[in-house]
Write a structure and sequence with these properties.
The complex is a heterodimer of chains A (about 110) and B (about 110). By secondary structure, chain A is an all-beta fold. Chain A contains no helices and 11 strands. In chain A, a hairpin with a 5-residue loop joins strand 9 and strand 10. The mean pLDDT of chain A is about 95. In chain B, strands 2, 4, 5, 6, 9, 10 and 11 form a 7-stranded mixed sheet that branches. A 4-stranded antiparallel sheet of chain B has the order 1-3-8-7, with no helix packed on it. Chain B is mostly beta strands. Chain B starts with a strand and ends with a strand. In chain B, a hairpin with a 2-residue loop joins strand 7 and strand 8. Classes of the chains: A mainly beta (about 110), B mainly beta (about 110). At the A-B interface, strand 4, strand 5, strand 9 and strand 10 of A face strand 5, strand 9 and strand 10 of B.
Chain lengths: ~110, ~110
């Protein structure tokens, strides 16, 4: 049973516009929620995270929103750039064990 | 910078042979993880470790075993490789600061014929 779901396999946006990537989870035992970016033939790289006690965290063009009542996480990229084209994974960490799992990923394409 | 090395980076083997992938870190981090990445499945956790000799199963642990006899090394073993274990394997270490942030290795591509 998947505990983290990214229901959109792909997303295409125009350069300069907003990209919104979504993630749903089913468990309330997570303490951190994370987003990672992955280019082909490279390991995933950390983008941004948010604690379960917050509802928003910003870092430059990247903002993560956490809606605990809906068990929903989103990543906003504004403005989107062609270099943002990659696969994005959302991740969740259990609060008591350090176990960390990811969703299936969303492939973002930013068109010039 | 967190130092993490995976070996081998590429391996081709035959069904039924044992395979061991090694993850080595230079930073003394407590948490280490093994994931596999497959098209349509994203990153799936195989096993993880929260200290020397302390390991636990992930989402897809069947057919895999791990060992961590010292802080810097986390080994992933396929006792008898199958074609379904053809994948790219990533090791990760949990960075300090308790934010859940992981630092990933560059991956090991395994092909089981």
């Amino acid at each position: 049973d998947q505990q983290v779901k990214q229901n959109s396999p792909s997303l295409s946006v125009q350069e300069g516009r907003i990209s919104i990537l979504n993630c749903d989870y089913t468990n309330s035992m997570f303490d951190y929620f994370l987003w990672y970016k992955k280019y082909p033939a490279e390991g995933p790289t950390f983008l941004i995270s948010i604690s379960s006690i917050k509802d928003k965290n910003e870092d430059g063009r990247f903002t993560v929103f956490l809606n605990k009542s809906a068990k929903h996480l989103s990543l906003h990229i504004v403005p989107s750039q062609p270099g943002d084209s990659a696969v994005y994974f959302c991740g969740v960490r259990w609060s008591n064990t350090g176990k960390l799992i990811f969703g299936q990923g969303t492939t973002l394409q930013v068109k010039p | 910078d967190a130092g993490i090395t995976q070996s081998p980076r590429h391996k081709v083997t035959e069904t039924g042979t044992p395979v061991t992938l090694r993850c080595h870190q230079t930073e003394n981090h407590r948490y280490m993880y093994w994931y596999r990445q497959d098209p349509g499945h994203g990153l799936r956790l195989i096993h993880y470790s929260y200290g020397v000799k302390d390991t636990d199963k992930g989402e897809v642990s069947d057919g895999y075993s791990v060992s961590r006899s010292k802080t810097e090394d986390f080994l992933l073993t396929l006792e008898s490789a199958t074609s379904s274990q053809t994948s790219v394997y990533f090791c990760a270490i949990g960075l300090a600061g308790d934010t859940g942030e992981l630092f990933f290795g560059e991956g090991s591509r395994l092909t089981v014929l």
